[in-house]
Amino acid sequence: MSILTQYFNTKHNTAPFSQIKIEDYVPAFNEGIALAKAEIDAIVNNPDVPTFENTIVAMDFSGDVLDRLSSIFFNLNSAETNDEMQKIAQEVSPLLSEFGNDIRLNAELFARVKTVYDQKESLNLNPEQTTLLDKKYKSFSRNGANLPEDKKNQLREIDKELSKLSLQFGENVLAETNNFELHLTDEKDLSGLPEGTIEAARLLAKNQEKEGWIFTLDYPSYVPFLTYADNRELRKKMAIAFGAKGFQKNEFNNEENVLKIAKLRHERANLLGYKTHAHFVLEERMAESPEKVFSFLNDLLAKAKPAAQKEFAELTAFAKELDGIEQLEKWDGAYYSEKLKQQLFNLDDEKLKPYFQLEKVLDGAFTVAKKLYGLTFTEVFDIDKYHEEVTTYEVKDANDNLVSIFYADFFPRKGKRNGAWMTSFKSQYVKDGVNERPHISNVCNFTKPTETKPSLLTFNEVTTLFHEFGHGLHGMLADTVYPSLSGTSVYWDFVELPSQIMENWCYEPEALALFANHYETGEIIPIEYVQKIKESASFQEGLATLRQLSFGLLDMAWHGQDPTNITDLKTFETEQFANTQLYPDVKENAMSTAFSHIFQGGYSSGYYSYKWAEVLDADAFEYFHENGIFNEEIAKKFKDNVLSKGGTEHPMILYKRFRGQEPKPEALLKRAGLL
User: Fold this and answer.
1) DSSP bridge partners of 405
2) Domains of the chain
């Protein structure tokens, strides 16, 4: 028995990080998979008639050792990895995917699930039990369990082909990104660029033993170049290279891959009995159907387009006045927007950072959670952690009951991936009458303190901390029976509501007064800064919304209809963008050939959900705003109907229970200054 496959005899059953050795993982995974298989076999071979308890519930609680081990290993592989860990990940990932397929394709197991599902009406189940039964049945039916054998084989072939194509798609985009560099040797070409960007470009050149400065298509190099470089020709060169990824006449061209992926997805959906790929995906989303998504996007478009056109005309006039530019091109947008923003608001990060010391901002998030939900966060020192920089907290409710364990890990280091995320080391569920509490973690990459200065955050990092903390609360306050419906296990277009709503408090003077103090003088952030933060947040929101909507509509155009007749990718794209286009088209560029979100990531038929979640969070926060941002009664409704309920019922039912009505886009349009 490995330490990883037995009950952790530690405080609150927390993970014994310091006792885990790297060589423990592979044997533990083999043991965990064998245990989970044995549990599944026991369900299949049970001589009793299939019931909700002995089949559906038994399945949900099976594999708990493997789940816990997987969450520890893969969380550490993101936050504290090394070459050995990555090797292990490559070794165990196929084993886990094979195990998952073995379950989904287990005909005897499905027969038991189907027996229970067919009696659904007479079983007298509560909403959470009904959701669990639906979920278990669909995990088989949406993967082809009801198909005859020849169709099952066809499905497997399509899935194999699709996974190859999306891998190929991603590799091509990466190769195109890596193949381009802008090598500058003349210092005057650097005019306008921030010192940090120049420094990074110099380092890149040095590493290649070259003179001068090298800029690439990676975001940290590309975005500042397009935003600040004064040389228009060079911006053009960079922008065209960026937009031509996967669209050049070379071996990395993705046009064929995109057409094949779209057609195979359509074929797969038809095979499973759905009209299009979007119908298949959206069945398991809050939006429910392509028609609903199209009307949602077009509705927003009608309201945002006039604002975007007005902002574009202002930007055009500003560029003309400043530099005599007659026609704004795509490579001008970010540059002149930044110039205009500085002129209007004169607000830069360096002014704001002294007011946002990391420890105080985190305490601010804790205080907001206390005022809303009665939670207290106490740092503890007797819980094992995976790195010395991690801080650990016990989270308790107003009656001193344990709600959760919270791990906070905020600084970059070798072995930690970029970005910010929330995750859990242990789920919440109820077993044998005990409500097992979750262990939640927030991981970010903020500036480390130095000898002379504490960690000071940009305002964007402040909203990131609150965003991830919102996901954290969704995990911490979970209160469901079954592990697979707990915490953040909800529909994709609902999961961002708890996180995005938290960001709203960062803009409220009443909340900022709790934590935005100057780290040296203790002075509260000046009100004119707060005003500027609020105003600049909605700067060019029309243009930004139009851009997001154009991507959402392109995604739906690929997946919400039969794509078999599409032969020319560029022509198809141009048609789709006609209604959202402001800048002149660049013939050398295409969007779809590098649209990784939908052709490699999991956002196909789902790109709309970014905007959808914004509508939800603006509508929900307006409810708070009208009645006081720390209104306990509304906070309780939000906690009881959204945060604690996980995926136990359809999200629209939960939302309406909290808000008393369906969400309306007006609140978002108001916040964005579009109304």
Assistant:
1) 394, 439
2) 3-144 (1.20.1050.40), 147-166+254-346+538-675 (1.10.1370.10), 180-243 (no CATH), 352-526 (1.10.1370.40)
